[in-house]
Amino acid sequence: MKTPNPKYLLLLAILTAVGFSAPAQDNQAGQRFEEKYQAWKTWTTNHWFMSTYDANREYQEIVALGLPALPYLFKKIENNPEDFHLEYAVELISKRKFDKSEWPPDKLDRLGDSITKSKMYVQWWKVGRHKTGERFGELHENIKALKAQKKDIEAAAIRVKILNLGIAVLPAMMVRVEKGDADVIPLISELTDGAVKADLKPAECLDWWAKNKQIWLLPTNNENP
User: Fold this and answer.
1) Buried-most residue among 78, 86, 95, 141 (CB within 10 A)?
2) What is the pTM of this model?
3) Which residues are CB-contacts of 194 (< 8 A; sequence separation ≥ 6)?
4) Residue ranges of the chain with pLDDT lower than 70?
5) Cβ neighbourhood burial of 190 (10 Å; 0-12, 13-18, 19+)
6) pLDDT confidence of residue 35
7) Side-chain half-sphere of 180: how many Cα atoms within 13 Å?
8) Distance CA 127, CA 24 (A)
9) CA distance 164 to 144
10) What is the pLDDT of residue 46?
11) Which pLDDT score, from 0 to 100, does residue 112 have?
12) Are 21 and 214 in contact (CB under 8 A)?
C-alpha cells in the first residue's frame, strides 16, 4: 500500500480545521491567502533567482492553505502575469497535471514551461474542470477495454491520465463506486494520499465520502473573489 505523503496529510489536517463552505470562512480564506501572498511577494523582491521562487517557506505556506486558496491563486495568475510561478501551487493543491497530449501544439518544444502552464491552469479552472466527469468516463471505459484485452501497458498509461485529472475527478469516481465499481477505489486512494484505503469495500468508501467530501470538493463560492 502506498505510504501517505506527509505533506498532503498536513494539508488535509489544515483543510479539516478551516473548512470553506460558509461565507465567513470564505472571507477568512481570502484574508489568509492575501497575507501569505504578500509575504511571498516580499520574499521574491529580495531573491532574484527564478528557480527558487517556489522553494521557500512563504510559498509553501500558500500551498498549505489548500483548496480554499485555489480561486485566489487563479485570480492572481490571471491578473498578474508575473505571478506565473503560482502554477506549481495549483498543481500541488489540485493534483491536476497536464500530459503531452494536452499541451498546446505550438509549445511542445517547451514542455513544463511555467508561463504556458499557468495559462493552461486558468483555462482549466474556467472551462476544463467542468468537463472532468466526462473525461473520466471516457478514460475509464478505455482502461476497462484495455484490461479486458490484456493490454496492461496501455491500461497503465490510461491510469496515469486518470490520476492527472486531479482531485476534481473524485465526485465522478464516487458515482462509479455507487454503482458497485470497486476498481476505482485504488485510484481514489492515490488521489487522497491514503485517506481512503485501497482495499475498502464500495459501501465503506461511500461512507468515507459522505463524511469527508466537503474537504475534497473544489471551491465554488469564491470563484470570483
Assistant:
1) 86
2) 0.84
3) 1, 2, 3, 4
4) 1-26, 50-51, 221-225
5) middle
6) 97
7) 0
8) 27
9) 18
10) 86
11) 77
12) yes
CA distance 45 to 13: 31
Instruction: Give the per-residue pLDDT at 108.
Output: 79
Q: What is the pLDDT of residues 102-129, one digit of tens each?
A: 998 888 777 778 999 999 999 999 999 9
Q: Which three cell numbers stand for residue 120?
A: 493552461
DSSP calls for 17-68: HH---SHHHHHHHHHHHHHHHHHHHHHHHT---GGGTTSSHHHHHHHTT-GG
Query: 190 vs 95, 199, 223, CA distance in Å?
Result: 11, 12, 27
Tally of CA atoms within 13 A in the half-sphere of 2 that contains its CB: 16
pLDDT at residue 184, as a whole number: 96
Residue whose C-alpha is closest to residue 170's, from 217, 127, 203: 217
**CA dist., res. 30 & res. 45, Å (int):** 22
Q: Which residue has the cell 483543510?
A: 15
pLDDT of residue 26: 65
C-alpha cell at 35: 497575507
> What is residue 198's three-state secondary structure?
coil
What is the C-alpha separation between 30 and 188, in angstroms, rounded? 29
Q: If you search the block for the grid coordinates 477505489, which residue do you land on?
A: 185
Lookup result for grid cell 500558500: 62
